[in-house]
Records
---
Amino acid sequence: GPSGCGKSTLLRMVAGLEEITAGIIRIGDRVVNDEEPKDRDIAMVFQDYALYPHMSVADNIGFGLKMRGLAKGEIDSRVAEAAHILQLDQLLARKPGELSGGQRQRVAMGRAIVRRPKVFLFDEPLSNLDARLRVEMRTQIKRLHGHLATTTIYVTHDQVEAMTLADRVVILKDGIIMQEGTPIAVYSDPNSQFVGEFIGSPRMNILRAKIDRSSALPVLQVGGSQIPVSGLGELDGTEVLVGVRPEHLHVCDAEQAKLFAVVDVSEPLGSDTMAICMMGEQELTARLDPEIPLSRGDTIHFTFDTDRLFLFDSKDGRRLK
């Protein structure tokens, strides 16, 4: 969810760092409401690496085990195992100051792994990394989860991280769960405008429209376009919000078009081109084949599968169709 929605607070409640006012927290079959954080058998990884600068990588990874009084042989064994999983074998003697941001985050993850907890808690662990490192570390984290198969709660504002990493996604807004499900289910079947816009990149187009039942088949009036749709129930003359994803828009001939728009800006990305178009005063973004020639001021005609069209209430954003 977005900033301030309660993600980190929820994580801290699971960890025992925030007091809960109602409800039950279970880890496995164990109710942990009254247990101290140190007794909950969890390990946290934060946005900030929080490494000891004067210690080697090996000592940083094993420090928590040393404080718990584990034997040196056991500590060394666990550190070596974690270093191998995270590809830190050649870096164990280095200090944090000699490492890249991605390597430091892997050390922080190693420190959590050696605990062998029941639950991992990740609090926006990739926020400090540049775009390339974020992609690399996403892959590392997914590979790590496949190797360890430990339950993980991962907090992020980045829907790409949520979509690529999660088995199940929980989307929060103002402390309330808006929707929960598999990434593909949430992407394909959002229950509100908020979820529809939040999940998916680039974000879903939201267009103001009006339902017109003056003809045999109801139509949506969107800008200067009229889109025939079925399954609108008793809605008539109602102003609604139409949601359509940029990747679901396809260029077509004028005779087949369901929408038309004028190119304002084109953004070539190599694999595809983002066309930012205008329908009157409303903006429409389309993800298009890079071979399609685009110039500012061109009129483009679009078609799409009406099953991929979403209707939302214009007042509260709830899903209508």
Note: The first strand starts at residue 26 and ends at 27.
---
Amino acid sequence: MKKYVLDSYAVLAYLYNEPGAEKVKEVLVHALNGKAEIFISMVSWAEVAYISKRKSGVGGWETASSSIRRLPIELVPADIELANLAAEFKFKYRFSLASAFVASLSKAKKAELLTGDPEFNELEKELSIKWI
């Protein structure tokens, strides 16, 4: 079964029907049909919550949050293993802590990262990335 990690870029594209939303929807359909597993880091969840509240207010986030939680997506807490991997990615690539957690989750789950964030360009040698 195919595994995917969504970063905040992908989730926000889906929620706000931004460029790349169709590719995210395709992956979600695969998961709904039992052909894929999807993971989101709790750190990405926090980032999506913050940006959604800023864009749409608290009520908009509550609606978005409710719709995300109905999807076949596993929210993954930041445990010590992911934190240590994230520290390695952050040290090596000097990108945001949220991106480091996304990369660590993708590596730990052996999952393809679904993103449109150019910050991940450097990781194409280490991770499988599906660009939206």
Note: The longest strand covers residues 36-41.
---
Amino acid sequence: MKKIVLLASLFGFMLLILSSCGEAKDYSDTYNPDTDYQYFLLEQGRAIQSGESDTGYYFLNNNYIYYMDKGAMKPVLLDNRPESDCLKQTATAPISNCNAYVSNLDGLFGGFLAYNDHHLYVLESAQVLDKDRAVTRYSLIRLSLDGTKRTKVLEFKFRPMAIAIHRGIVYYSSQDFDVNSDGKYQIFQYDLNKRFAKPKQVYLGKLEKGSIGDIIPYGKNVYFLEAGIQNGANLYRTFRYDIQDETVTGMFTGDPKANCALVGILHDRLIFNKFYGDVKDPKSWVIYEADLQGNHEAPLPIERDFFTFYYAADKYIFGQPASIYMTPEQLKAAPDAYRMTVYDQQYQPIDTVDLSFLPKDHNLLPGDDRYMFAHYRKEDASYIAYLDKQELGSGKAKFKTLIKTDHPDTVITQMEK
């Protein structure tokens, strides 16, 4: 009996030593391309649908995953087996043998794809029976980089409004649509490295008709955007969750009349704007910077003559005129209404790029050090276009089609010359 007790004690002691020698958590603000959230591929207001590895890029387009080698720059379906049924879906024959397919019942722009720690993660949805009625359920799936191995990581009762994976943790926002829930919305975190882990609440929202938009982890912080109604007025605001201290702090709160949103990160500086409720108000045209805690705010020396959508990453800030808010007279008088201005690290304009090919419903991704991307849909096809940043400053930079996926059963992949 004593031997059994002794062995049990030794075993417990060894487990304690092993657990104490585990990999330490990373609370630095140094970007790690393998484990950190790829903030430069965020589609503002939507989920991330692209990922970058050491060797190439992954794109989700019309529910199919494409891979593009950085050397060849020729996108291909992740599953090119002759026996697969990729791109052959019909009303009576759903996809059943395609490693590149992501089941998504929420439409073309409801998808999620991310690269993290040498895996791909996607959000899938499916119809299931719940108390004799069909309901949609959602699952976060981890894929091998070739798509052949799939593991269900996490299940959701309702579709997450935003998802971000960062340093082994899944951050996601959830809104309860049960009859008696009053639309309760919150943010959870889930540890991918712990067996039997359960989601842990990070933030509980209390705004009327509130929701959580973008979730953007960077370093030891997770930034998120909350929107809703307070005292009868629409508002949106940005918060910072400190991963190490486990605290949530409001950001950019110096002016209570301003709605503030993070639009990018540039060399450990947060780039954000302040909206005062009217696109014609010149105060809403100014863009700002701050440190990673949201302190030391300062306006940037970028002058605009109309409300602008901004994107920032790597070496550049991109300014896109908000032409959707312009009157026909303003559009006629503004020759650059459909041109994006590119600013360098000294905030000087170095080029403009034509955006007239984009429909109203589109997303621009600031991208890595080499490419910027555009994700959009026209008529019956979904597109991904790219901009080669090496051409910036030449006056010849332009977006070129990278992937075109026709609906529902044809695919064309090409790299325009």
Note: The radius of gyration is 23 Å.
---
Amino acid sequence: MIDDSKPIFLQIAELIENDIVSGVLAEEAQVPSTNEFAAFYRINPATAAKGVNRLVENGLLYKKRGIGMFVAHGARDRLIEARRQHFSKQYIQPLAAEAQKLGIGTQELIEMIQAAHGQLSGKGV
């Protein structure tokens, strides 16, 4: 799972974020320790700690002294909202701009998206 595409500490943070968004890690759930991450991914514990601490700084995790790190209340909702905003900026806005250039109206664009979504779902249109 860990690769050379970006810094390892960012990948650790993203792994935890993905687990929060998908529900694998619920609010108030304990997150694996930095030593567990280090052993599992064969990385330096300081690198794992840097990824975890990034999420603490962003208010997604919190520390219980002597016990470990836990998912903060509202973390999933905050992550989903941030990802929706990123999705809109990264994909929807350029899509809408290109559709406008091509003279594709709103309804036609909606139909195209529904068709593509149906193909991905295996349902067709």
Note: The chain has two domains: 8-73, 76-122.
